[in-house]
Backbone:
């Protein structure tokens, strides 16, 4: 929060930190702001990222980032993928399982990736989240279900390179900031997941190529697909879209983060933007500029 505030102040804005929970509610009721820079991920339910913006909508305070509907929808990976696919954006085949009985009608091709259906920041996606057989998945599913108390998203594993795409703006004004490839160190792509374990040790386990060292046409295709998913979910102001190539060499949408991390050192979007010549204060200002244009303030 302090880094964002400093970046805003560096370009002439006045800021105040309002915290979260009841302190946030009291603060906003006591003194409204011209614009709230929303980074609140909430707590407890699959609609948790919608809690703060819903309250702000109710009391009439404008805010950055997506609206409550998009935030809640995007956190549920299964629902988000259905919406994106309905707009013609390619995504790996998937299913959502709550019990072992659900696996009896599974029609996916192995290997598959298993992850909590409504978590963010790679929570629940560990190094062992790729399953090569139905027997292995069946044995693991009860613990996966129990650990996060929610259904499990099962997705056909894309064995090609992984990319993440930074986007700013809203609707027709949305544009790609840049594309970044996540390259594993000392591990083959066929078994690589950008897991929570990797992110906790990212300096040693991956390299970030921003821009990617790939054919320019492919990079444009990745950006186009990501932008299509962003617009399909009606994201606003900023977002980061994860894309991976399949065995056929084509890009596929994995998921979108409409509240991307903005840690000035380790945030994927921040690293991506810097690689494309966008400084941290410039990135923060892009988000604010998009919100102000959208809100006409």
Residues:
């Amino acid at each position: 929060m302090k880094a964002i505030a400093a970046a805003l102040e560096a370009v002439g804005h006045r800021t105040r930190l309002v915290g979260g929970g009841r302190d946030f509610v009291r603060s906003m009721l006591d003194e409204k702001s011209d614009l709230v820079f929303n980074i609140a991920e909430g707590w407890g339910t699959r609609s948790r990222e919608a809690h703060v913006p819903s309250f702000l909508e109710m009391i009439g305070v404008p805010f950055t980032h997506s609206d409550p509907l998009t935030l809640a929808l995007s956190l549920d990976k299964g629902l988000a993928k259905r919406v994106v696919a309905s707009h013609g954006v390619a995504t790996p085949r998937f299913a959502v399982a709550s019990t072992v009985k659900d696996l009896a009608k599974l029609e996916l091709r192995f290997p598959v990736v298993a992850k909590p259906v409504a978590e963010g920041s790679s929570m629940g996606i560990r190094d062992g989240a790729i399953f090569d057989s139905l027997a292995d998945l069946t044995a693991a599913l009860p613990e996966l279900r129990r650990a996060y108390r929610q259904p499990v998203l099962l997705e056909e594993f894309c064995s090609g390179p992984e990319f993440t795409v930074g986007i700013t703006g809203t609707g027709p004004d949305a544009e790609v900031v840049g594309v970044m490839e996540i390259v594993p160190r000392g591990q083959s792509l066929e078994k690589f997941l950008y897991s929570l374990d990797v992110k906790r040790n990212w300096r040693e386990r991956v390299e970030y190529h921003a821009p990617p060292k790939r054919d320019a046409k492919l990079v444009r295709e990745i950006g186009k697909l990501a932008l299509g998913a962003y617009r399909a979910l009606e994201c606003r102001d900023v977002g980061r879209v994860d894309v991976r190539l399949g065995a056929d060499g084509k890009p596929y949408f994995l998921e979108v983060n409409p509240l991307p991390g903005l840690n000035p050192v380790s945030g994927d979007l921040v690293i991506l933007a810097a690689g494309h010549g966008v400084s941290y204060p410039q990135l923060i200002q892009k988000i604010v500029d998009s919100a102000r244009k959208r809100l006409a303030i």
Remarks:
- The two ends are 23 Å apart (CA to CA).
